[in-house]
UniProtKB/TrEMBL annotation:
Transmembrane segments: none
GO molecular function terms noted in the UniProt entry: S-adenosylmethionine-dependent methyltransferase activity
Sorted UniProt keywords: Methyltransferase, Transferase
Top-rank lineage group of the source organism: Bacteria
Transferase keyword on record: yes
Record-given protein name: Class I SAM-dependent methyltransferase
Entry-linked SUPFAM superfamilies: S-adenosyl-L-methionine-dependent methyltransferases (SSF53335)
UniProt domain Methyltransferase type: residue ranges: 53-143
GO biological process: methylation
Species this chain originates from: Microlunatus elymi
PANTHER family for the chain: METHYLTRANSFERASE (PTHR43591), RHODANESE DOMAIN-CONTAINING PROTEIN (PTHR43591:SF110)
Length: 234
C-alpha cells in the first residue's frame, strides 16, 4: 500500500490535488464533533505564536483557518509541490515551495511549526525533525498530526490490503519526536470514514487502482474508523 515508501512517488502523488481531496472528502468528525484540526487550532491559540511555519501544507485549508482564527500569527505555509503552494496562495496565505528536509530559514525563526499528515512522507525523518527543531525558537511549539497503524484498517482489510505502517505514526511518533524534543504530549482522535461503495473505491484508487478493484460490492454507506494522533513537542 503506497504511502510511506510509495510505488507512486510523493512528488507525483501531490503534483495535483485530486488524490488528496478525494481522500480528505470521506472523513467525518468523531462522535464528539472535535476534529484533529480543531485541536491543533486550540493548541496554537493557547501558545499564541507570533510566527508559524507549516511544512507540507497541501491545499492550504488548515493554514487558511489558522490565519483567520489567529490573526496575531504570521503564517507561512510551505510544500514541496508547486501546485499545492499555488492552491494555498489562492486562499490568501503566504506560501512557498520548500522541501521539509532542507528548511531555508534562520535558526529560531518561528514560534510554532505545524506538520499535518506529512512526516510519514519525508525521505529522512530525523533530518526533517532536526530542521524543525533548529528553526523553532526555544520554548516554541511543534504540532504534528499523523495516522495510526489501524487508520481505515477496516476499509483496507475489505479490499484485501494490509495495514499502512509508516515511519511516523500514532505508535512510533512519540519516540521519533523524543530524539529531538524534551517534552512530547499526544492526543488521540477517532474520526470516521463514511462512504458508499463508489466513494470507498475512489478513496482506495487514490492510493492504488488495483485495491479499488478488489473491494467487494456493498449497498448503502459503511463507516470505517480512523486512528489519528496529534503530537505537541517542545
Ligand atoms: C497527505 S498530504 C497533507 C496535506 C495537508 N497538510 C493536510 O493536512 O491536508 C502531504 C503533503 O505533504 C507534502 N510533502 C510530502 N513530502 C514533503 C517534503 N519532503 N517536503 C515538503 N512537503 C512534502 C505533499 O506534497 C503533500 O502536500
Amino acid at each position: 500500500m503506497p504511502i510511506g515508501n510509495e510505488r507512486q512517488s510523493v512528488r507525483e502523488q501531490y503534483g495535483r490535488e485530486t488524490g488528496l481531496t478525494t481522500r480528505m472528502s470521506i472523513w467525518q468528525p468523531p462522535a464528539d464533533g472535535i476534529t484533529p484540526q480543531d485541536i491543533a487550532v486550540e493548541i496554537l491559540r493557547a501558545a499564541d505564536p507570533k510566527s508559524l511555519l507549516e511544512i507540507g501544507c497541501g491545499t492550504g485549508l488548515l493554514a487558511e483557518r489558522i490565519s483567520r482564527e489567529l490573526p496575531g500569527t504570521d503564517v507561512l505555509a510551505t510544500d514541496q509541490s508547486e501546485r499545492m503552494v499555488e492552491l494555498t496562495a489562492e486562499r490568501g496565505v503566504a506560501a512557498q515551495v520548500v522541501d521539509a528536509d532542507d528548511l531555508p530559514f534562520d535558526d529560531d525563526r518561528f514560534e510554532a511549526v505545524l506538520a499535518a499528515w506529512m512526516l510519514y512522507h519525508v525521505p529522512d525523518l530525523d533530518r526533517t525533525l532536526a530542521g524543525v527543531r533548529r528553526v523553532l525558537r526555544p520554548g516554541g511549539s511543534f504540532v504534528a498530526i499523523t495516522n495510526g497503524d489501524h487508520h481505515a484498517g477496516g476499509l483496507l482489510a475489505a479490499a484485501g490490503a494490509p495495514l499502512l505502517i509508516t515511519q511516523f505514526s500514532s505508535e512510533n511518533g512519540e519516540a521519533a519526536l523524543r530524539r529531538h524534543f524534551d517534552r512530547v504530549e499526544a492526543c488521540e482522535v477517532t474520526p470516521l470514514a463514511v462512504a458508499d461503495h463508489q466513494r470507498a473505491q475512489e478513496y482506495l484508487a487514490s492510493f492504488d487502482a488495483e485495491l479499488a478493484a478488489n473491494l467487494p460490492p456493498y449497498e448503502g454507506e459503511r463507516s470505517y474508523p480512523g486512528a489519528v494522533t496529534l503530537f505537541t513537542a517542545r
